[in-house]
Amino acid sequence: MADVLSQKEIDALLGALSSGEVSAEEIKQEEETKKVRIYSFKRPSKFSKEQMRTLDMIHEGFARTIGTNLSARTRALTSITIASIDQMTFEEFTRSMANPTILAVFSADTLPSNSIFEVNLKVAYVIVEKLLGGPGSAVKKIRTPTDIEMAIIKREMLTMLDILKDAWVNVIGFIPHLETLETNPQFVQIVPPNEMVILITFNVVISGIEGFMNLCLTSSMLEPVLPKLTASSWFTSGKEELSEMDVKRNKEVLKEISVPVKVEIGSIRLTFSEILSLNVGDVIRLDRKAKSSIDVKIGTKVKFKARPGTVGMKKAIVITEPVEESELIFTSSERRS
Q1: Which of 238-247, 249-258, 283-292 has the lowest mean pLDDT?
Q2: Cβ pair 58, 159 in contact under 8 A
Q3: Of residues 56, 182, 61, the one with CA closest to residue 117
Q4: What are φ and ψ of residue 2, in 5° steps?
Q5: Domains of the chain: which residue ranges?
Q6: Which of 16-30, 90-104, 205-219 has the lowest mean pLDDT?
Q7: Rounded to 5°, angle at Cα 212 from 206 and 216
Q8: Which of 25, 86, 22 has the alpha carbon at shortest distance from 55?
Q9: For residue 154, which of 135, 170, 186, 177 has the smallest C-alpha distance?
Q10: CATH number of 49-255
C-alpha cells in the first residue's frame, strides 16, 4: 500500500470496509507486520535525496539557459526541461543509449575523471538543419553524421559545455574540456561498468520535434563536491553577483531576441455611443498637432520620439530623440489630466 492514497483509493477502501470484504483488524495486523525494504548491493544508493534535489536545481537552470540559447541561434521556439534524474551503474547507462548517437566526453580542470553529454541524433539533426537555414524537419532515418555535420555539432556541444560551467559556478568553478566526440557508445568506456553515475535526462522540443539529451556525471567526478551539494550551500552561494562574463553573455543572448516595435500617432477617448456611431469617412481628431512628434514604443513602453514620412512607396519614421524615464512619467500623467 502506498504511503499516500488517492481519493479514488480511499473511496474503494471505505467501500470494502462497509461491505465486509476487508476488516479493520486485518489492516491493523498488516501495518504491525515488520516491513522489509529491498536493498540492491549491485546498485547501492551513493547519493542522498538532498544531493539529488540540489543537482535537479542546478540543471534546471542549465536547461533553461540552453533553451534560450538555441531559440536565439536557430530562430525557433525551443523548450528544454528535466524529464528525470536518477542514479544507476555506468553499464546500465551505456546499454540504454542508441547507436548511433552524439556522445561528448568531457573533463573538468578542477575535477577528476570524465563525464558524458549525449544528444539524441533526432535533436542534433534538427539543430544542424536550422543553423544551415533549413526548415528543421524530422529525419525519417537515423544515420551516422557526416564530417561537416559533426563539425557543426562539435561547435554546439562546446557552447553547451560552457553553459554547464556557468550552471555549476555556485558550487564549484571549473573549465570543461571536450576530450572526444563519438557516435558509438562502445567507444566511451570512461569508468568501470559497475561505477555509479548520475543520469539527468532532458526533454527537448525544437520546431515541434521532440527528443532527448542525457548528462551522465560519474561518481568519481562528483566525489570532491558531494559535501557542497546541499540546499543551504546552494542558496548561500547563489546570492553572489553576476560576473562580467555572465553579464556579457546575457547581453549577447538578448541581442538576438525579437521585440515588437510600434508607432503611435496619437490617441483620444471616446464614449461607447460615439464608437457605435462611427462611419466610413468620419474624421477623428487626435490629441496631437499635425507637426508634433509621434511615440515609438518598444514593447509597451515609449522609448523614442519620431517624425513620420515615406521611403519610396512605404511609410517610415525618423527617430528624432530618445525619451527619458522622467519625461515619460510626466507625459503619461499629463495625458491622464
Answers
A1: 238-247
A2: no
A3: 182
A4: -70, 155
A5: 1-36, 49-255, 261-336
A6: 16-30
A7: 135
A8: 86
A9: 177
A10: 3.40.1550.10
CB of 181 closer than 8 Å to CB of 154:
yes
- Helix segments in 75-207, DSSP class H: 90-96, 121-131, 147-167
Q: pTM value?
A: 0.59
**Inter-helix orientation angle 121-131/147-167, to 10°:** 100
Find the farthest-apart pair of alpha carbons in the chain and give their distance in angstroms, rounded.
Answer: 90
Taking 80 as the threshold, does the pLDDT of residue 23 lie above it? no
- Check: CATH 3.30.70.100 for 261-336? no
Cα(221)–Cα(198) distance, integer angstroms: 10
| Lowest-confidence pick of 23-37, 63-77, 277-291 | 23-37
SS3 of residue 97 by DSSP: coil
Choose among 221, 187, 42, 69: nearest CA to 130.
69
Pull the grid cell for residue 219: 561518481
